[in-house]
Design goal:
The complex is a heterodimer of chains A (about 120) and B (about 110).
Chain A (H helix, E strand, L loop, with lengths): L3 E2 L4 E5 L4 E3 L2 E2 L6 E8 L6 E7 L7 E2 L2 E6 L4 E6 L8 E9 L7 E2 L3 E6 L1
Chain B lengths: L4 E3 L2 E4 L5 E6 L6 E7 L6 E7 L2 E5 L7 E4 L6 E5 L8 E8 L8 E2 L3 E5 L1
Parallel strand pairs in B: 2-11
Antiparallel strand pairs in B: 1-3, 3-8, 4-5, 4-9, 5-6, 7-8, 9-10, 9-11
Classes of the chains: A mainly beta (about 120), B mainly beta (about 110).
Chain lengths: ~120, ~110
Protein backbone atom coordinates (compact mmCIF):
# COMPACT_ATOMS: atom_id res chain seq x y z
CA UNK A 1 0.00 0.00 0.00
CA UNK A 2 1.20 3.48 -0.84
CA UNK A 3 2.41 5.13 2.33
CA UNK A 4 3.33 8.55 0.94
CA UNK A 5 1.04 10.38 -1.46
CA UNK A 6 1.98 13.47 -3.43
CA UNK A 7 -1.04 14.44 -5.50
CA UNK A 8 0.55 17.25 -7.52
CA UNK A 9 2.64 15.89 -10.41
CA UNK A 10 3.62 19.44 -11.37
CA UNK A 11 3.38 22.92 -9.88
CA UNK A 12 4.19 26.38 -11.21
CA UNK A 13 5.03 29.43 -9.12
CA UNK A 14 6.06 32.95 -9.94
CA UNK A 15 9.50 34.00 -8.77
CA UNK A 16 9.42 35.57 -5.28
CA UNK A 17 6.03 34.05 -4.51
CA UNK A 18 5.38 31.31 -1.93
CA UNK A 19 4.31 27.79 -2.92
CA UNK A 20 2.95 24.79 -1.02
CA UNK A 21 3.72 21.23 -2.05
CA UNK A 22 1.30 18.67 -0.67
CA UNK A 23 2.15 15.41 1.06
CA UNK A 24 -0.09 12.98 2.92
CA UNK A 25 1.10 9.83 4.63
CA UNK A 26 -0.27 6.64 6.11
CA UNK A 27 1.12 4.92 9.18
CA UNK A 28 -0.11 3.15 12.28
CA UNK A 29 3.10 3.90 14.18
CA UNK A 30 3.07 6.63 16.80
CA UNK A 31 6.74 7.39 16.19
CA UNK A 32 7.80 8.42 12.73
CA UNK A 33 9.75 11.05 10.89
CA UNK A 34 8.85 13.02 7.79
CA UNK A 35 11.44 14.37 5.37
CA UNK A 36 11.51 16.49 2.25
CA UNK A 37 14.14 16.19 -0.45
CA UNK A 38 14.93 18.26 -3.52
CA UNK A 39 16.23 16.62 -6.70
CA UNK A 40 17.52 19.05 -9.33
CA UNK A 41 18.07 17.98 -12.91
CA UNK A 42 21.61 16.94 -11.94
CA UNK A 43 20.03 13.99 -10.09
CA UNK A 44 21.42 14.33 -6.58
CA UNK A 45 18.91 14.14 -3.74
CA UNK A 46 19.28 17.06 -1.33
CA UNK A 47 17.84 16.85 2.19
CA UNK A 48 15.75 19.92 3.01
CA UNK A 49 13.80 19.54 6.23
CA UNK A 50 12.69 17.06 8.90
CA UNK A 51 9.60 16.82 11.12
CA UNK A 52 9.25 14.31 13.95
CA UNK A 53 5.86 12.93 14.89
CA UNK A 54 6.26 14.20 18.45
CA UNK A 55 7.42 17.66 17.47
CA UNK A 56 4.86 20.20 18.58
CA UNK A 57 6.13 22.98 16.40
CA UNK A 58 6.36 23.02 12.63
CA UNK A 59 9.90 22.62 11.35
CA UNK A 60 11.59 25.51 9.56
CA UNK A 61 14.88 25.70 7.66
CA UNK A 62 15.53 29.03 6.03
CA UNK A 63 12.96 29.52 3.27
CA UNK A 64 11.54 26.03 3.84
CA UNK A 65 8.85 25.26 6.39
CA UNK A 66 6.79 22.17 6.99
CA UNK A 67 3.07 22.53 7.67
CA UNK A 68 2.53 19.46 9.86
CA UNK A 69 -1.08 18.48 10.56
CA UNK A 70 -0.87 15.24 12.47
CA UNK A 71 -4.59 14.49 12.68
CA UNK A 72 -4.92 14.88 8.92
CA UNK A 73 -1.66 13.01 8.33
CA UNK A 74 -0.32 15.73 6.13
CA UNK A 75 3.16 17.26 5.94
CA UNK A 76 3.11 19.97 3.32
CA UNK A 77 6.28 21.80 2.31
CA UNK A 78 6.08 25.57 2.04
CA UNK A 79 8.77 27.38 0.08
CA UNK A 80 8.75 31.13 0.61
CA UNK A 81 10.17 33.73 -1.78
CA UNK A 82 10.69 31.23 -4.62
CA UNK A 83 13.88 31.47 -6.64
CA UNK A 84 14.64 30.20 -10.13
CA UNK A 85 17.04 27.70 -8.56
CA UNK A 86 14.13 26.11 -6.69
CA UNK A 87 12.96 24.50 -9.94
CA UNK A 88 13.37 20.78 -9.30
CA UNK A 89 11.59 17.59 -8.26
CA UNK A 90 10.53 17.53 -4.62
CA UNK A 91 10.00 14.29 -2.73
CA UNK A 92 8.26 13.70 0.56
CA UNK A 93 9.48 10.71 2.56
CA UNK A 94 8.68 8.92 5.82
CA UNK A 95 10.60 6.74 8.19
CA UNK A 96 8.47 4.69 10.59
CA UNK A 97 9.17 3.49 14.09
CA UNK A 98 11.85 4.33 16.61
CA UNK A 99 14.38 2.01 14.98
CA UNK A 100 16.35 3.60 12.20
CA UNK A 101 14.37 1.91 9.46
CA UNK A 102 14.54 2.67 5.79
CA UNK A 103 12.85 5.71 4.29
CA UNK A 104 9.93 5.44 1.86
CA UNK A 105 9.37 8.13 -0.77
CA UNK A 106 6.40 9.58 -2.60
CA UNK A 107 6.23 9.94 -6.37
CA UNK A 108 7.34 13.56 -6.25
CA UNK A 109 6.18 16.96 -7.45
CA UNK A 110 7.96 18.85 -10.21
CA UNK A 111 8.17 22.52 -9.30
CA UNK A 112 8.83 25.13 -11.98
CA UNK A 113 9.60 28.69 -10.93
CA UNK A 114 8.73 31.24 -13.60
CA UNK A 115 10.65 34.51 -13.92
CA UNK B 1 34.62 14.97 3.70
CA UNK B 2 33.54 14.75 0.08
CA UNK B 3 30.12 13.25 0.69
CA UNK B 4 28.78 10.01 -0.78
CA UNK B 5 30.56 8.86 -3.93
CA UNK B 6 29.17 6.47 -6.50
CA UNK B 7 30.97 4.86 -9.37
CA UNK B 8 30.40 4.71 -12.26
CA UNK B 9 28.06 7.61 -13.03
CA UNK B 10 26.74 5.90 -16.13
CA UNK B 11 26.77 2.30 -17.29
CA UNK B 12 25.49 0.88 -20.55
CA UNK B 13 25.40 -2.88 -20.75
CA UNK B 14 23.97 -5.58 -22.96
CA UNK B 15 21.14 -7.69 -21.68
CA UNK B 16 22.42 -10.74 -19.90
CA UNK B 17 25.68 -9.18 -18.73
CA UNK B 18 26.63 -8.67 -15.09
CA UNK B 19 27.28 -5.21 -13.67
CA UNK B 20 28.68 -3.98 -10.37
CA UNK B 21 28.29 -0.55 -8.81
CA UNK B 22 30.29 0.92 -5.97
CA UNK B 23 29.30 3.32 -3.22
CA UNK B 24 31.64 5.06 -0.78
CA UNK B 25 29.63 6.56 2.09
CA UNK B 26 30.59 9.36 4.42
CA UNK B 27 33.22 7.78 6.62
CA UNK B 28 31.52 8.28 9.98
CA UNK B 29 28.12 7.06 8.77
CA UNK B 30 27.40 3.51 9.88
CA UNK B 31 24.24 3.03 7.83
CA UNK B 32 24.22 2.65 4.08
CA UNK B 33 21.18 2.35 1.82
CA UNK B 34 20.60 1.40 -1.81
CA UNK B 35 17.62 2.76 -3.72
CA UNK B 36 16.44 2.43 -7.30
CA UNK B 37 14.72 5.26 -9.13
CA UNK B 38 12.96 5.02 -12.46
CA UNK B 39 11.97 8.02 -14.57
CA UNK B 40 9.22 10.08 -12.99
CA UNK B 41 9.13 8.06 -9.79
CA UNK B 42 10.44 8.43 -6.29
CA UNK B 43 13.32 6.28 -5.07
CA UNK B 44 12.39 2.71 -4.14
CA UNK B 45 14.17 1.03 -1.27
CA UNK B 46 16.34 -1.97 -2.15
CA UNK B 47 18.48 -2.81 0.86
CA UNK B 48 20.45 -1.37 3.75
CA UNK B 49 23.45 -2.10 5.92
CA UNK B 50 24.42 -1.21 9.42
CA UNK B 51 28.17 -1.44 9.37
CA UNK B 52 28.85 -4.72 7.53
CA UNK B 53 25.51 -6.36 8.35
CA UNK B 54 22.78 -6.36 5.72
CA UNK B 55 19.68 -5.80 7.82
CA UNK B 56 16.85 -5.59 5.32
CA UNK B 57 16.19 -6.46 1.69
CA UNK B 58 13.21 -5.35 -0.33
CA UNK B 59 11.05 -7.76 -2.30
CA UNK B 60 12.25 -5.74 -5.30
CA UNK B 61 15.68 -7.26 -4.80
CA UNK B 62 15.45 -10.45 -6.84
CA UNK B 63 17.96 -13.26 -6.67
CA UNK B 64 19.90 -11.56 -9.45
CA UNK B 65 20.75 -8.69 -7.13
CA UNK B 66 23.34 -8.91 -4.40
CA UNK B 67 24.89 -6.29 -2.20
CA UNK B 68 27.86 -6.34 0.12
CA UNK B 69 29.55 -3.99 2.51
CA UNK B 70 32.80 -5.64 3.57
CA UNK B 71 34.31 -4.22 6.74
CA UNK B 72 31.50 -1.69 6.99
CA UNK B 73 33.10 0.74 4.60
CA UNK B 74 32.26 0.93 0.89
CA UNK B 75 29.43 -1.11 -0.59
CA UNK B 76 28.90 -2.86 -3.91
CA UNK B 77 25.65 -3.69 -5.67
CA UNK B 78 25.85 -6.41 -8.31
CA UNK B 79 23.19 -7.26 -10.84
CA UNK B 80 23.59 -10.57 -12.64
CA UNK B 81 22.07 -11.41 -16.00
CA UNK B 82 20.75 -7.89 -16.50
CA UNK B 83 17.34 -7.33 -18.03
CA UNK B 84 15.92 -4.26 -19.73
CA UNK B 85 13.69 -3.69 -16.73
CA UNK B 86 16.80 -3.12 -14.63
CA UNK B 87 17.42 0.16 -16.44
CA UNK B 88 17.18 2.84 -13.75
CA UNK B 89 19.14 5.20 -11.55
CA UNK B 90 20.71 3.39 -8.60
CA UNK B 91 21.15 5.67 -5.62
CA UNK B 92 23.27 5.12 -2.56
CA UNK B 93 22.76 7.02 0.69
CA UNK B 94 24.37 7.01 4.10
CA UNK B 95 23.44 8.31 7.51
CA UNK B 96 24.72 8.14 11.08
CA UNK B 97 22.56 6.27 13.55
CA UNK B 98 20.57 9.35 14.47
CA UNK B 99 16.81 9.24 14.16
CA UNK B 100 16.15 12.70 12.82
CA UNK B 101 19.13 12.84 10.48
CA UNK B 102 18.32 12.94 6.79
CA UNK B 103 20.12 10.68 4.38
CA UNK B 104 23.03 11.98 2.35
CA UNK B 105 22.70 10.70 -1.18
CA UNK B 106 25.31 10.15 -3.84
CA UNK B 107 24.84 11.32 -7.42
CA UNK B 108 23.72 7.87 -8.48
CA UNK B 109 24.66 5.39 -11.18
CA UNK B 110 22.46 5.44 -14.25
CA UNK B 111 22.17 1.96 -15.74
CA UNK B 112 20.95 1.41 -19.27
CA UNK B 113 20.42 -2.17 -20.42
CA UNK B 114 20.25 -2.52 -24.21
Amino acid sequence: AQKITQTQPGMFVQEKEAVTLDCTYDTSDQSYGLFWYKQPSSGEMIFLIYQGSYDEQNATEGRYSLNFQKARKSANLVISASQLGDSAMYFCAMREGLVNNDMRFGAGTRLTVKP
Amino acid sequence: DTGVSQDPRHKITKRGQNVTFRCDPISEHNRLYWYRQTLGQGPEFLTYFQNEAQLEKSRLLSDRFSAERPKGSFSTLEIQRTEQGDSAMYLCASTPGVWNYGYTFGSGTRLTVV
